[in-house]
Design brief:
The complex is a heterodimer of chains A (316) and B (179).
Chain A lengths: L7 H28 L1 H39 L2 H36 L8 E10 L7 E4 L12 E3 L4 E8 L4 E5 L6 E6 L4 E6 L8 E2 L12 E4 L11 E7 L5 E5 L8 E6 L26 H21 L1
Antiparallel strand pairs in A: 1-2, 1-12, 2-5, 3-4, 3-12, 4-5, 6-7, 6-9, 7-8, 9-10, 10-11
Helix pairs in contact in A: 1-2
Chain B lengths: L1 H4 L3 H20 L14 H12 L6 H14 L6 H15 L1 H4 L4 H25 L7 H26 L17
Classes of the chains: A alpha+beta (316), B mainly alpha (179).
């Protein structure tokens, strides 16, 4: 090898050391990521937040063109499609009538029962910017982030069903881990029987239902909704339907249209109030026990005395 | 652009970086990949191996490490691991760049295939060592098999489209140095 380039003979060992150091730096980055995941993930989120929205101008036309080509392919069977749609529309009209009647009945019943729905369950809608880019990870990037008040862990839906949860929030982007991702675990309830299960993604289009208490009570075709266990998601969001695979394992067909994720709704879910203490003993009224007494009770008794200084503090 | 920059080393380096960025961008397009779909070949890997065996000076190690690290970060892979493996694999090939001029393409292809498989095994071994969840073996194997199958295509595009081939013995570059 030492034929010509005069410097090469001396630079080669140095180069080898430098390459070794570079490999070590990269491997230590990997190890740091493994040990102290959130910090490196924050770096990654910052990079994605910086880079991907800038690429949007280039991504938009290509995505749109691909969508147009796909739609153009469907024109070839436009006639059958039209007939099919008309038939479905007819059925839908019947359903709509039924739904309206049910809605009225439901409103009456809710009124009778004086049920209060959670008024704080609002949503932020975002546009899908980018894919995960890898067939092994199921996630999308949407164009709302910390700027819009998005918080890690919030549920994300398309128009109909649950899509996934927020995992990683940048300033103007956030990542949604889809239910099909191998890291996704969501507590769900199977509707008519009320069986609890965990919907665990495994990188297939139909994620399996794990940990069903009595799987013989669950039938293919049952509705799956989120159970709200663990305070992760609000309860009652539609997830999909139960199906049974050829391996007799219960799986879920997802209601959300995973083929066409374009606009996603992020539900602002507010943290459920936690009950932290285990509950103190309630002492009989004639035996005041200083250890077990609730400090709030003391405050109430002393309230007339403390009220005045507080008011002064507020003025000053 | 390729014509204007051809011949200058920095032009080729810029072209390599641009192509890698373009490939990442193509993969990020929100076209709705189905879960469980078969993976596409890793064209960045093919391109880097092909270039490092033809003109090692066009893809310096630092550039490879930087581009693959960016790819790692943007594609949600464990950061640094694949970049380190790419660096080791390409360094192995770089040291055999001289040798690869004397061998037939099929032999070169086999050598690259072995390096790619070794990188895959190293990747899976490292993930197993730190107890990270892994992709199904069949899927990972399919991706590497796709990459191996795509390698001749990439070489063909480099050769026919950009006129890049292995330097002949005693060929000089624009500055009159021997390649």
């Amino acid at each position: 090898m030492a034929r010509d380039n005069t410097g090469q003979e001396y630079t080669r060992p140095v180069r080898r050391i430098l390459i070794g150091m570079l490999v070590l730096v990269l491997l230590s980055l990997f190890l740091i990521w493994r040990i102290d995941n959130p910090r490196v993930e924050r770096l990654r989120v910052a990079l994605v937040d910086r880079v991907v929205p800038n690429m949007e101008w280039a991504m938009r036309p290509v995505t749109r063109a691909t969508g147009m080509i796909e739609q153009f392919q469907s024109y070839t069977r436009v006639y059958e499609q039209n007939r099919e749609l008309r038939r479905e529309l007819q059925q839908m009209k019947a359903w709509r009538e039924a739904a309206l009647q049910l809605e009225q009945a439901n409103a009456r019943l809710l009124d009778l029962n004086q049920v209060r729905l959670d008024p704080r369950l609002t949503h932020v809608t975002g546009v899908v910017l980018a894919d995960s880019g890898s067939p092994f990870r199921q996630s999308v990037l949407i164009n709302v982030g910390a700027r819009d008040g998005i918080v890690d862990g919030w549920a994300t839906m398309d128009g109909l069903g649950l899509v996934g949860r927020i995992s990683g929030v940048g300033r103007s982007t956030s990542r949604v881990i889809l239910l099909t991702d191998a890291n996704s675990r969501v507590p769900v309830t199977v509707q008519p029987s009320g069986q609890r299960a965990i919907l665990s993604g495994d990188n297939t289009p139909l994620p399996p239902l794990d940990f069903i208490e009595k799987s013989d009570l669950v039938r293919p075709g049952d509705r799956i909704v989120t159970s709200g266990d663990g305070g992760l998601f609000p309860a009652g969001l539609l997830v999909g339907q139960v199906v049974q695979g050829p391996d007799r394992r219960l799986r879920a067909t997802l209601s959300a249209d995973y083929q066409r994720l374009e606009f996603l709704r992020v539900l602002r879910s507010h943290e459920a109030e936690r009950i932290d203490d285990t509950g103190a003993l309630i002492p009989p009224p004639d035996l005041p026990d200083p250890d077990l007494a609730d400090p709030a009770a003391d405050l109430d008794i002393a309230a007339p005395d403390t009220a005045e200084p507080r008011a002064e503090a507020a003025d000053g | 652009m390729a014509d204007a920059l051809k011949g200058t080393v920095w032009g080729w380096r810029a072209l390599f970086a641009a192509v890698v960025v373009g490939l990442i961008y193509l993969r990020l397009l929100p076209l709705g990949h189905q879960a469980g779909a078969w993976p596409a070949p890793d064209f960045v890997l093919c391109l880097t191996c092909a270039l490092v065996l033809r003109r090692p000076e066009f893809v310096p190690a630092l550039l490879i490490a930087a581009m693959v690290l960016i790819e790692d970060l943007l594609l949600m892979r464990p950061p640094g691991l694949w970049a380190a493996l790419m660096l080791m694999g390409t360094e192995f090939l770089r040291r055999r760049a001289q040798f690869s001029r004397e061998i037939a393409f099929v032999t070169e292809w086999i050598m690259v295939a072995v390096v790619m498989c070794a990188m895959l095994l190293g990747y899976r071994l490292a993930l197993a060592l730190v107890m990270l969840p892994q992709v199904a073996f069949g899927h990972a194997l399919a991706q590497i098999a796709g990459s191996i199958a795509a390698y001749p295509l990439v070489v063909g595009v480099l050769r026919l489209g950009l006129g890049l081939r292995k330097p002949a013995t005693g060929e000089l570059d624009a500055m009159g140095r021997r390649l």
